[in-house]
Amino acid sequence: MIAIIGASLAGDMAAATLRQEGYAGQILLIGDEPEVPYDRPPLSKEALVGDAPENRLYLRAESWYAEQGIELRLGAPVMAINPTAHTLQIGSGEPIKYEKLLITTGARARTLPGMETSPIPAYVVRTLEDARHLRAGLQPGVRVAIIGAGVIGMEVAASAATRGCQVTVVDFADRVMSRILPPDLSAYMAELHTSHGVTLLLDAGSVSLTPTGISTTKRGDLEADLIVIGIGVVPNTELATAAGLAVRDGVIVNEYCQTSDPDIYAAGDVTRYPNPFGPGDIRSENWKHAQNQAVTAARNMLGKHEAYAAVSGMWSDQYDVKLQTVGNIGTGTTTLRGEAKSRKFMLIYQNEAGVVLGALGINQAKDMRFAQGLVEKRASVDSALLADPKQDLRKLGA
Ligand SMILES: Cc1cc2nc3c(=O)[nH]c(=O)nc-3n(C[C@H](O)[C@H](O)[C@H](O)COP(=O)(O)OP(=O)(O)OC[C@H]3O[C@@H](n4cnc5c(N)ncnc54)[C@H](O)[C@@H]3O)c2cc1C
Description:
By secondary structure, the protein is an alpha/beta fold. It is built from ten helices and 26 strands. It folds into three domains: about 1-110 and about 235-300, FAD/NAD(P)-binding domain, CATH 3.50.50.60; about 110-230, 3-Layer(bba) Sandwich (FAD/NAD(P)-binding domain), CATH 3.50.50.60; about 320-385, FAD/NAD-linked reductase, C-terminal dimerisation domain (Enolase-like, domain 1), CATH 3.30.390. Strand 14 (about 215) and strand 15 (about 220-225) form a beta hairpin.
């Protein structure tokens, strides 16, 4: 029996892959949330502004799991793993025997002291339940203070501004999305937000909650009717640590997605894995990684010996902008493809030998797929050709 702990994107994808690869044994997919596995990216975007029914967020119809012979246990937190006995324990139940185990426990949103007792509604955005509460609060005219100008904070800012709220984003960093964007793109995204009426309070020092809103050490106090905290995530590693697995800000896996116990694998947001495109190991918190690593983990659990080597990448939707990245961005020489001030352009990053390291696209979904191909091939391309939008990226670097 293969057991999977964590019924979200990575867990779901792994279960599906096991069946696609012909595994006929028992699969147990266990989740502590009550919902059928659902997609998180819409929670800070469409789910806050659109009218689509909630079941549109589900990764699959509930009936699919039974059709595939995948036993789905929801609302069932796994309390312990015993690697020696090859068992896991759900709630206070009897130990369940596994042959191989996959940990896809993901991450949870980081919180701030005083959030639970705040007289002003204060939310993080990680679960469907969080999004339900937040959506109900985003009424026109409501003063929304968002702590954290990272991707989630800026997406919520866009959704709240679209809903007609008065939005202020506060961060100790001096630019938006500073962890993933180079400074010129931070400035571009900041301008996008201010043009929609969002106030940015950057370089604000440290931020704390007050009975009337928030307080910052460098930019004063701010009154608010609703607070959103988007200050990053913490990987859910407690089970792995208690089981004696190697953990360092993420469950450590090798390139085959195997933990320090050969019968226990891990995939998705919870892992720290060898970076296939650079030195050291990394933790990624994005959809493509969770999906791709889960596929590799499932295949390796069935005896394949495939190294996980997917190119990293993410996307974010804010207003009418789809921002995407692939590979390593912000390093090496930069080539602009398109008009920098427009709503459609690409930045391509190369090393001294002309090898394409990464790309960043604004409303360039199609070309970003081809840019990914260049990064995967480690193609060396003349930057003058990359800069010319008339050149077909598919044909470059062949
Ligand atoms: C609001 C939001 C917007 C996002 N937008 C984007 C985007 O635009 N682009 C992008 O690339 N990525 C985005 N992401 C990130 C992406 O959704 C995650 O990378 C992805 O969900 C990771 O999947 P996962 O299965 O590894 O972990 P998770 O989705 O975190 O799932 C882990 C699951 O395991 C459960 N679990 C934990 N411990 C236990 C236990 N002991 N027993 C049972 N179950 C347990 C958790 O409750 C959870 O259900 C977004 C994330 C959020 C929250």
